[in-house]
Write a structure and sequence with these properties.
mainly alpha; 2 helices; 29% helix
Length: 58
Amino acid sequence: MHGIPESEVLARVMLTESAVKRLVEPEEVASLVAWMASDHAGMVTGASYAMDGGWSAR
């Protein structure tokens, strides 16, 4: 669709609007899930957490 090689799609299409120029790692998601399931997040209710490298802050 964009006329670029598949190897360049991540950098030139998917991450162009992101402040952090990489995809989230599974370990980062697991870390957030572990925190949310812990007593440390006991007062967190009804919140959402974007793990998008700043893309939604644009």
